[in-house]
Give the backbone structure.
Amino acid sequence: MRRCETFTESTKNLLSSPHMSTRKIRVLVAKPGLDGHDRGAKVIARALRDAGMEVIYTGLRQTPEMIAAAALQEDVDAVGVSILSGAHNTLCPRIVQLLREKGMDNVLVLVGGIVPQEDLPRLKDQGVAEVFLPGTSTEDIVKFLHANVKPRD
Amino acid sequence: MSETKESSSPAETEREAWEEQTLKPALERHPERKKSFQTVSLKEVERLYTPADTADLDFAQDISFPGQFPYTRGIHPTGYRGKLWTMRQFAGFSTPEETNARFKYLMEQGQTGLSVAYDLPTLMGYDADSPLSEGEVGKCGVAVSSLADMEVLFDGIPLEQVTVSQTINAPASVLLAMYLVVAEKQGARWDKISGTLQNDILKEYIAQKEWIYPIKPAMKLVVDTFGFCTDHVPRYNPISVSGYHIREAGATAAQELAFTLRDGIEYVAWGVEAGLDVDRFVPRMSFFFNAHNDFFEEIAKYRAARRIWAREMKNRFGSNYERTLAMRFHTQTAGVSLTVQQPLNNIVRVAIQALAGVLGGTQSLHTDAYDEALALPTDRAALIALRTQQIIAEETGVANTIDPLGGSYYLEALTEKMEQEALEYFRKIDAMGGMVAAIEKGFPQREIQDSAYHYQKAVERGEQVIVGVNKYAMTDEPSEVPILVIDESVRTHQVERLEQTRASRDAGAVANALDKLRMAAKKNENTMPATIEAVRVYATLGEICAALRDVYGIYEEPAF
């Protein structure tokens, strides 16, 4: 519900922004850890691309350091982390921390995958913008990005 | 069957009359719920199937009897009347001690075979103390870094009596070696033990993506296990050619069928190329399929799988040996179909999927636990999963007669359609130069990604219903289920044992054994004897895989 309201407000801002059509939202889809299950990452990457965003996929088995470096190099607005292995509490906070250390204060970190309910508050406290659990519609993720990526020149 | 053929024309006339006189007025009064009806693979389903849909089938050649070519109705002449399927629940988490306790618990509850799930570091060939293993030790399965862990894992489990399936691929030859050495230490004879190694590297490049080496040396390692087991462990299944993961990655039922069987053909071709005798090693190849939601489509898939395999082994490899032609397979219910939302609904999904596996004639079955979309299963969830199989076996009566759905117009037509779709894929893959070449081109990978995307969109449009997710969703869900939590102390425990192992072993012997293994790999000899020697002196999984990486290099996935 909160997400929808933010979406409406932010869409208005976007519509009134002169830069709206000049820069597409750029997203890094990242797959940290040893797990190779990339169905979700690939589906999300394609859905975001179909929604008009520029998507860079890291490929498999990236360390948090590699992901942060790719985010910087690609000048992205958001990093979508796909993780199903249970290693989220170790890997996600480190990705956020490395992004901030590299000065990417506005880069959103979204997490998608198998994350138990009780881990959600901690991940958000540690700087994860949103966690999308199994069953999420790709359209909700598109809306979230439109609502929360800060327009920039 | 000849009677059906003769009556097909009158049947058509009768069908037209039915459509005109009975159906049309009914449709005018009550239109159907949807414009089109589709399987979970997004394939069109007709309103009704009649003898006309099976008129091209020849009973003797296409359907026949159980235990007879082409095995459409099953590989055993007595079906499940002789022996029920093996109830083999996949289990593994945390430390070898904890998993050993779960194995014993499951066996006390009537489970008839074991199946080991390894954690991600083990699957990727890293030791628990590798920096890459951080956060992953014991999470998705049990952590095994050396023979010392394997000894604990099978402590008190007699390997001469229990069959064990190991889900391990890229480093499979190493885990097989550990298993053989543990068996030997128990006093079990290698020619008496049985079990299954997943060891299907092709589907890793296609779908699950847990690879280490480039494709060709990885195939060589697989063929090494074929040769070694044929000579020394003759009752062991050195491969389980797996469609399960292909399906989970998003393939349709027909793609799962086609890519899995074409993988199987590729392994046979490589074995033959290496000088192995088809009728000595193929009888010990086994298969592994998914059981997804679409009941009839799944049953048709299993029946088509047996028929295609028998025909391909005969036509491509000239075999007439019953045990080469008859495909044996394991089935697991579809993890991907389980929902986080309203998780108890998963018990029902699993029961129906398991029923499809049984009606399809599976040799063994794993039923998923209802909490597996959330985490690894708790004891309680694992027990209900096992009980589900026992209820199907003992209460429903479906095991009383063989292939009870055989002869259904729908099922036979669907079986035939599945076979034709698979053969069409075979033609394409053969034209590319075989499965290894097709994988290098990214062909099966792209086909699967496309299917996954189309399915997701169909769900988002509401065309494919997932109860509790895109229909009948609840904002306040009544039941929270307890989940299994594995903390970081597992890694500490495992690293401690690893350090003890490294401290107490003969370092010179380890270095020698690893050198011998590198040499065997370089000289293109069978690597199994050297792997067994390395395992025996407690070289770790990580060290052995590193030695092979020195020779073979690593796989880099091409962009597509």
